[in-house]
Write a structure and sequence with these properties.
The complex is a heterotrimer of chains A (about 350), B (about 290) and C (about 230). By secondary structure, chain A is mainly alpha-helical. Helix content of chain A is about 75%, strand content about 5%. The chains are: A mainly alpha (about 350), B mainly alpha (about 290), C alpha/beta (about 230).
Chain lengths: ~350, ~290, ~230
C-alpha cells in the first residue's frame, strides 16, 4: 500500500559505532579506579574542551553564528560559581546549575545587541561583549576585582558527593574531588555531544541547516530564523556557562584575564573544531584528540607551539577546509553520527537506503 | 568646565589615533569585505619594524617610518597575494579563521623575536612639546600631529579613490567584483594592492602608537577592537565616517576615564554597543552592502 | 574571416549542466542573434565566451586563439566586451566614471572614445557627473553599452538589453546598433524579444534547453520553424 512514509536517519554503520561508543564511555567511566591522577586531570581538560568545541561547532558550523566571544559565557559561568559558593553559600553543584541558567539568561540581552550584526561584524561584536563582561567583573571587588580570587577550602572540600566518594573508594579528599569533577566533566562532554546530535536530528536542526545555507530561502518556507538562532545562542550560552563553572571549580582560582581569555576559550576551541572538521559532530572529537597530542608533546615550546598551531589552522583552512575528519569522511564516505534524512516508504515496499 | 573641555579635546585627539588604526581596516573591509582579525597585530608588527629599523640604522622614528613604509607595502602585497586571496569567497569562515591564526602567529613571532619587554618609539623633543589652545588649555604636539595625520591620510585616500584610475578600479571591485573583471580588472591584484596601501596607513598608525605609549607583542587585539568599533560606528565606505567613529570612541574613553580611571576602556565599548543598537549600519553608511 | 567559434561548448553551474555541446560561428563584422526561452542557456553561453564561466581550452576560439581556459579579465583585453544581463553598472561610480572604467583594461585607438559615446547617447552627457544609480532603466542600458564600447572591442556581447524596458526605449536602443556595426564591431545579441533581434541580425541561433535547436538567416526561417525550435515541440 503506497502513501505511508517515515523518515529514517540511522545507518548500519552508525549502529556499530553506537555500540563502540558505549564501550568507550564505559571504559572512561571506570577510569578513575585504575588510571593515574595525572591522567584524570588531563582527561578533565579534554572533556571540557571537547564540550566547548561541540557547542562552538553547533553555533558556527550549523547555525552560521561565528562567535569569537564565547569566552564571555565561560568567564561568566566561572564568576557565577564563585559568587554563589563564596558570597551566597550554595553548594558547588547547585552553583554550577545556576551558573548555566543565568548565563543562558544573559544570552538574551547580548543577542539583542549582537544579532543586529552579520557575519564578521557579528564576530567582532561578540568579542566586544566578552570584553565588556570582563571589564565589568573586574570592578567587582567582592570577587577579587582585577586580580581575582581563590575558592576557600570549605567550598572545594565540601562539594556534595565528595564525602560519599571518599568513603566508598577510600581516597584522599583531593583525589575524591578530582574524581567528582572528572565524572561531571565526562557527563558534560557526553551530554553535550548527545545534546548537539539530538538537536540536529530534530526539526529544529533541520531548520538550522536551512538557515545556514540560505536564510532567505529558509524564511520563505516558514522558518523563523531569528527565534531559531536565538534559541541556539541561548542554549549554547547556558551550556558554556555550566562548563565555565565546572572549569573554575577545578581550577579553584579565577581572575578576569584568565576567565575571559580569548586564547584559552576561543582560539583553542576554534582550533579544535577547525582541525577536526567544522560542521560535523565527529570533527571536534578528532580535533580534541589531535589537540591533546599536540598539547602534551609540544606545549613546552611556548611561543613556537602557538606559532605551529596558528600555521596548522591556516594550512587546514586553505588546503583542507573541512578538517581532517571532513577530508577522510568525504573520500571514504563515512558518517558516524548520521544526520541525513531518508524518506522510507513504510507501507508495502520498504526501500531502505544505505 | 575647562576640565571637561580638556577631556573632550583629549578624546578627539585620541580619536585621531583610533581613526588611524581604523583607516587601514576600513579600506580592506570596504574593498574586499575581508575581516582581518590580525589587523591589530599588524599595527604592532609595523611598530616593531619601525623600532628595529630605527635602532639598526640610528634613525629617528619618522625617518624609520619612511624606510619601513615600502617594506610594509611589499609585505602587505605578499600577504594578500599568497595567503589571504585564497580565503576570499562566499564563506566568511576561512578569512576569519586564517586571520585569527595569523594573529596568533604574529603575536608569538614578535614575542620570540623581541621578547615580551615593552618598547617605545622616540620622537625626540616632540614628545613633550605642547601648544596652548586657550589660557590654561594646552595640548601635546604629538596628539595634534596624530589627528592631523589622520586627516591627511583621509584626504590622500579620498584622492586615491575618487580621482585616480586605480581608485576607480578599487571602487568598482568593491561594488561588483564579477563585473569588474569584465573591465579587465584583475581582482587578485587589486586586493593585493589594497592590502599594500592599507599596510602603509597601518605603518603611520604604528608610528603614533609607538611614540604615544609603550608597546609589546600582546597589545594587538585591543587595537583591533578599537579599529573595528570605529569602522562600524562610522559606516562602511566612508573614510570621514571612520574618523567620526574614532573620535566617538576616543571621547567616550576620555570622558569615562574622567569619571573613573578604571572605566576608560569599558566606556568606549559601551558607546560602541549603544551606537550599534541605535544605528546598526553605522552613522554614515555609503556603500551598498 | 571567422572571428569567434565555439565547438562542443559545455557549461556547468556546480553540478547542474546548462550547455550540452554548443557549436556556433561568427564571422568578422557579423551580427548574430541568439534567441530562446528562459533557461535555454543563452546567458550562460555569453558568460562562457566572456570567461565568467570556465570552459575547456579548445571549446572557444577567438581570432584563431583558444580562449576557453582564460579568465574574464584576460579575455576582455583580447577584445571581447560583455554588456551583462541587468546592466550592472557600478553604483559607487558616476556615469562618466562607469564609462571610463570600461577602458581600464584595454585602451586601444578606435571609433569609440568618450566623446563618441556621448554623441551616440546624448542623455549620458547630460548626466555624466550623476551617480549611476539615478539613471532610468533605458539610460542605464545605454551607459552599460557605452561602457562596453569604451574598450573598442572587436566583439560586443549583449545580454538581453531589452529586458525590463518600455518598447519605445527598446526601439531607441536598437536604432543605435547599426552605428555600432558600422564602426566595425561584431556583435552577438541574446534576446527574448525576437522581433527586434531578428531585424538587426545577419544570422540567428535558437537555443533550447542548452542545445542549438535551429540556425540560419532570419529571412530564410519561417515562423513555424522558429516557434518549434523555441519551444521544442
Amino acid at each position: 500500500m503506497r502513501g505511508h512514509y517515515r523518515i529514517e536517519i540511522a545507518t548500519a554503520i552508525s549502529r556499530y559505532v553506537a555500540l563502540a561508543g558505549a564501550a568507550l564511555v564505559a571504559v572512561l567511566v571506570f577510569l578513575p579506579l585504575f588510571g593515574s591522577r595525572a591522567l584524570m586531570q588531563e582527561l578533565i581538560f579534554v572533556f571540557y574542551m571537547l564540550a566547548l568545541a561541540q557547542l562552538w561547532n553547533l553555533l558556527a558550523g550549523y547555525a552560521g553564528l561565528v562567535s569569537v566571544g564565547q569566552q564571555a559565557f565561560v568567564g561568566l559561568g566561572g564568576y557565577l560559581l564563585f559568587a554563589f559558593t563564596v558570597l551566597v553559600g550554595f553548594d558547588a553543584l547547585v552553583a554550577i546549575v545556576l551558573a548555566g541558567l543565568i548565563a543562558g539568561a544573559f544570552a538574551f540581552p547580548t543577542a539583542l545587541v549582537v544579532f543586529r550584526l552579520r557575519g564578521a561584524y557579528f564576530a567582532i561584536g561578540t568579542w566586544v561583549v566578552a570584553e565588556v563582561f570582563r571589564l565589568v567583573l573586574a570592578q567587582v571587588k567582592e570577587l577579587g576585582g582585577g586580580t581575582g580570587t581563590s575558592l576557600p577550602v570549605a567550598v572545594t572540600n565540601g562539594v556534595a558527593g565528595m564525602e560519599w566518594i571518599k568513603t566508598f573508594f577510600d581516597v584522599r579528599t583531593a583525589v575524591a574531588r578530582d574524581m567528582l569533577i572528572y565524572w561531571l566533566a565526562l557527563a558534560l562532554a557526553i551530554g553535550t555531544i548527545l545534546g548537539v546530535y539530538y538537536v540536529l536530528r530534530s526539526r529544529r536542526g533541520l531548520a538550522l541547516a536551512a538557515i545556514r545555507d540560505s536564510e532567505l530561502a529558509a524564511e520563505s518556507v516558514g522558518v523563523d530564523s531569528y527565534r531559531a538562532k536565538l534559541w541556539v545562542y541561548a542554549v549554547t550560552a547556558a551550556m558554556t556557562g555550566m562548563i565555565g563553572a565546572l572549569i573554575y571549580l577545578q581550577k579553584a582560582r579565577i581572575s578576569p584575564d584568565a576567565a575571559f581569555s580569548v586564547l584559552d576559550w576561543t582560539a583553542y576551541v576554534i582550533f579544535v573544531v577547525v582541525i577536526g572538521g567544522i560542521g560535523t559532530i565527529e570533527g571536534p572529537i578528532v580535533g580534541i584528540v589531535i589537540f591533546w597530542l599536540l598539547q602534551s608533546y609540544l606545549a613546552d615550546f611556548g611561543s613556537w607551539y602557538l606559532i605551529l598551531l596558528g600555521a596548522l589552522a591556516i594550512g587546514i583552512m586553505l588546503f583542507a577546509p573541512r578538517g581532517i575528519w571532513g577530508f577522510f569522511a568525504d573520500r571514504y564516505k563515512i558518517v558516524l553520527f548520521p544526520l541525513q534524512r531518508r524518506l522510507i516508504d513504510a507501507g508495502g515496499e520498504k526501500k531502505s537506503g544505505t | 568646565m575647562l576640565a571637561l573641555l580638556d577631556t573632550v579635546i583629549q578624546g578627539v585627539l585620541l580619536g585621531g589615533l583610533y581613526a588611524l588604526f581604523a583607516l587601514g581596516l576600513s579600506l580592506i573591509f570596504g574593498i574586499m569585505r575581508l575581516v582581518n582579525l590580525a589587523h591589530g597585530d599588524l599595527i604592532v608588527l609595523a611598530a616593531f619594524v619601525i623600532f628595529a629599523l630605527a635602532k639598526a640604522l640610528g634613525l629617528n622614528s619618522f625617518g624609520a617610518l619612511v624606510l619601513a613604509a615600502p617594506v610594509l607595502f611589499g609585505f602587505g602585497y605578499a600577504l594578500q597575494h599568497f595567503v589571504l586571496n585564497r580565503t576570499l569567497g562566499r564563506d566568511i569562515l576561512p578569512p576569519l579563521l586564517v586571520t585569527f591564526g595569523l594573529s596568533i602567529i604574529i603575536q608569538n613571532g614578535l614575542l620570540e623575536a623581541f621578547s615580551a619587554d615593552t618598547k617605545r618609539l622616540s620622537a625626540g623633543a616632540l614628545e613633550t612639546a605642547s601648544v596652548s589652545l586657550l589660557p590654561g588649555l594646552a595640548v601635546g604636539v604629538m596628539p595634534l600631529l596624530t589627528l592631523a595625520s589622520a586627516v591627511g591620510v583621509i584626504f590622500a585616500l579620498n584622492y586615491l579613490f575618487y580621482r585616480t584610475p586605480i581608485g576607480r578600479a578599487f571602487r568598482a571591485t568593491s561594488d561588483d567584483p564579477e563585473i569588474a573583471q569584465l573591465m579587465g580588472i584583475d581582482n587578485r591584484r587589486i586586493f593585493a594592492l589594497a592590502m599594500a596601501v592599507a599596510m602603509v596607513v597601518t605603518a603611520i598608525a604604528a608610528l603614533y602608537l609607538g611614540t604615544r605609549a609603550n608597546f609589546d607583542p600582546s597589545i594587538g587585539p585591543a587595537r583591533l577592537l578599537y579599529a573595528f568599533e570605529a569602522v562600524i560606528i562610522g559606516g562602511l565606505g566612508s573614510f570621514w565616517g571612520t574618523l567620526a567613529g574614532g573620535i566617538i570612541i576616543g571621547v567616550a574613553q576620555t570622558v569615562g576615564a574622567h569619571i573613573n580611571a578604571e572605566w576608560q576602556i569599558l566606556a568606549g565599548h559601551l558607546a560602541f554597543l549603544a551606537v550599534l543598537v541605535l544605528r546598526p549600519r553605522g552613522l554614515f553608511p555609503r556603500a551598498v552592502d | 574571416m571567422v572571428l569567434l567559434e565555439t565547438t562542443d561548448l559545455v557549461a556547468f553551474y556546480r553540478d547542474f549542466q546548462a550547455l550540452f555541446g554548443i557549436d556556433t560561428r561568427l564571422n568578422e563584422g557579423e551580427t548574430v542573434a541568439i534567441i530562446g526561452a528562459n533557461g535555454a542557456g543563452k546567458s550562460t553561453y555569453l558568460k562562457a565566451v566572456a570567461g565568467l564561466l570556465p570552459s575547456e581550452p579548445g571549446s572557444v576560439y577567438f581570432g584563431g586563439k583558444p580562449i576557453g581556459a582564460l579568465g574574464a579579465a584576460e579575455i576582455m583585453r583580447l577584445g571581447i566586451a560583455l554588456v551583462p544581463e541587468g546592466r550592472r553598472l557600478f553604483p559607487s561610480l558616476t556615469v562618466e566614471e562607469n564609462l571610463l572604467i570600461g577602458a581600464h583594461g584595454r585602451a586601444v585607438p578606435g571609433p569609440w572614445s568618450i566623446e563618441a559615446i556621448y554623441a551616440l547617447f546624448p542623455v549620458l552627457k547630460q548626466r555624466r557627473h550623476q551617480s549611476s544609480t539615478t539613471l532610468s532603466g533605458g539610460e542605464q542600458q545605454m551607459a552599460a553599452i557605452g561602457r562596453a564600447l569604451m574598450s573598442n572591442p572587436r566583439l560586443l556581447l549583449c545580454d538581453e538589453i531589452s529586458l525590463g524596458l518600455a518598447p519605445i526605449v527598446i526601439r531607441d536602443i536598437y536604432q543605435v546598433l547599426p552605428r555600432i556595426k558600422a564602426g566595425g564591431t561584431s556583435m552577438i545579441l541574446v534576446e527574448q524579444d525576437i522581433v527586434q533581434a531578428m531585424k538587426v541580425a545577419d544570422r540567428v541561433y535558437c537555443f533550447q534547453e542548452g542545445r542549438v535547436s535551429l540556425s540560419g538567416s532570419p529571412s530564410a526561417l519561417t515562423r513555424e520553424q522558429i516557434h518549434a525550435a523555441y519551444f521544442g515541440t
